[in-house]
Amino acid sequence: MRYGSFVPHRDILLGFGFYLCLGATLAVYWPGLSGSFLLDDFPNIGALGDYRYFDTGDRLIAFVLSGSALPICRPLSLLSFLLNDFAWPSDPESFLYTNILIHLLNGCLVFWFIYLLTQKIGRLTRVQSLFVSLLAATVWLLHPLNVSTVLYVVQRMTELSSLFMLTALVCYLQGRHRLSRTPAAGYVLMSAGMAIGLGLGALSKETAATLPLYVLALEHTILRSGPGNAGKRPALPWNVAFVYLPLGAVLGWHLLRFDSYSRAYELRPFEIGERLLTEPRILIDYLVNIVVPKRAGTGLFHDDFALSSSLLDPVATLLAVVFLAAALIAAVRFRHQWPSAAFAALWFLGGHAFEAGILPLELYFEHRNYLPMLGPVFGLAVFFVWLGTTRLRPLGTAAGALFVLLTAAAAWQNTSLWGNPALLGDVWAAEHPGSPRAQQFSAHQWSIRGQTEKARERVARLLELKPRATSAHLIRVQLNCLLEEPVRRSDIERLRKHLARGDRDTAIPETIQKILNIKRGGGCPGLGYDDIETMITTLLGNDNFGRGRLRRNLFIVQGELATARRNFDTAVRSLHAAFDIESELSTALLLVNVLASGGLYEEALAVLEDPGIEASGILYPKLPSREKTIKELKDRIRNAIKYNQIQSEND
Known about the structure:
Layout: H1 8-29, H2 41-45, H3 48-51, H4 57-64, H5 75-81, H6 92-118, H7 126-142, H8 147-150, H9 156-178, H10 183-204, H11 211-219, H12 222-225, H13 236-256, H14 258-264, H15 272-291, H16 316-333, H17 339-351, H18 374-387, H19 393-418, H20 421-431, H21 436-448, H22 452-465, H23 470-482, H24 489-499, H25 508-520, H26 529-540, H27 548-564, H28 568-581, H29 585-597, H30 601-608, H31 611-614, H32 624-650
Helix pairs in contact: 1-6, 1-7, 1-19, 6-7, 6-9, 7-18, 7-19, 9-10, 11-13, 11-17, 15-16, 16-17, 17-18, 18-19, 20-21, 21-22, 21-23, 22-23, 23-24, 23-25, 24-26, 25-26, 25-27, 26-27, 27-28, 27-29, 28-29, 29-30, 30-32
């Protein structure tokens, strides 16, 4: 595909192709607008319901700083949700539509970024660069792996973070191009871009911390190997300020937080070593799904992905580690000879560097590929265009067109599924038969639609998969509560015996909390508060639940149960026990509320002034709105103490 000199009509055709790409993406995602809120949408966006209306700046600030993702709380992402609604519950369609528009905007930035980048590859003509950019942007926009980012409302956080990083990278390439002619303008543009990417990107989601790694991938591959590029590199002081220092700060932060990460692993069904061994296999799985786009097997539930306990268990672990290590070494070794391939590899690996590392995150999420997948997609686009410059031109053209069509077809199937909440859970459960979460999600979806038998089938499947899983037995009781069917005494006794010896399960406190909430709402016939208390005390006596945050969470639920029963002495003891395990602000506030409700104001004030809270930056972030909230709470309690003293003196 040796294109001749510049011909205007080709620009027109390519421009038409780009708009066709945007229109096709909108058409492919349109069926997804009938989707619903899912899982993490509720605790994140549901905070809208805590404020109801935003008549003051304080309420607005409190909401945008209410995020649970510490330490930054992603305020810009939360602010963006106010574009769609000011209340909760809400209609998901508006939120989903905004997500799709952001995805389209990101696609425009991808096209621009790739075009600027391919200009640095000496072997490509201008028209070839446009073809690579159009093909890469089209595949990226339509790729089915991105559906779980775009149609999962809360993942707007990922989209926005990527938006600012792509903006930063476009500014970086534009500024770098100006360095040889107008250095001052070039550095201003590059610096502004990095400030946007690192600043606004981090306020959207912490993945913006990977921006310096993307810049390094650019600098050490295509920008170093292209003709004339070597003389236009940024000066060392600029690199130190905008690349190495931010990267060092992120690495230092993770090292300082290592102890807290270790404690957080107590709430995961895997150890840190198992995570580090398993992630290479997951990265290979991501790559396969990028190169071979498909609908089947995608979605939110991948807890059926087998853990690696050693390099040889399973043996695929060693193969994955060897492959990724070889890819990294080859990318560094041959970055001058094959800069595009090296860039594709380093971009992908750099994009996953943090989330595939020591962080105590879930093992597998498709949305982590949203920006990292751009590396392999770029490599594929360059390969298809390169084929067009050889005698295999018809093959290259056909292969590129077929890949786009397959990608679009798989994405349309995926968005159609996401747009059908009634079918979504059942398909995911069928495609992930080994996933307890998929079975539980499907059971819940069937139960809220009144399909009792289908819901019970999923719970039975869950018990078959995990006969010793404590949560599986609790979910059966939860299902009875949801369906408003009586919980039999025989089931409660059987459950109690299982809880006494069941496996450690980090989902237990949340499941009991859901049962308690249903009971407080008048549900769960046949199940009494005493039965829920027995569940908790039985679990606390189980050695598998005898340590760390999991035990703390059980004490918290016990405290909330006692509060619901107006048994303040028990509530205080339980919450004190939770607070002693970990001095977390949320636990402290629960304890303060219980103490204040019982008129124990001095004890409540003592909890708020506990030095363990004040000293903990991650548990008590130094954000102005939170400090103001705590100060106001302390002032109200002090005023209550003074009022009681005055009353006592008057009496």
